[in-house]
Specification:
About 0% of the residues lie in helices and about 45% in strands. The protein is mainly β and about 90 residues long. It has one domain.
């Protein structure tokens, strides 16, 4: 499992246009996978996919990147965890 990479970008939420944070575990930088958790700027040296969950509207997005540009954006379902019961 790869390291979580934070992406420094001013790309807002595609739905409500509020600022949001983006992360990835599958980016390449100059063609190499990043194996250490770090923050990188979004630039033409970055390819892969980044993910974000908007705190303002609650929507989750996956963005495909090529040379630092968004070439595909899709809304995905927020991750949900099963509720654990305290009894039994």
């Amino acid at each position: 499992m790869g390291a979580v990479i934070s992406i420094k970008t001013d790309m807002p939420c595609p739905n409500c246009h509020e600022p949001m944070e983006w992360q990835s575990k599958s980016l390449t930088y100059d063609g190499f996978y990043l194996g250490v958790a770090q923050t990188i700027p979004l630039s033409e040296r970055v390819d892969g996919e980044m993910h974000g969950l908007c705190d303002s509207c609650g929507k989750r997005f996956d963005v495909e990147l090529a040379r630092g540009k968004a070439i595909g954006v899709r809304q995905s379902e927020p991750l949900s965890l099963p509720l654990l019961s305290s009894g039994s």
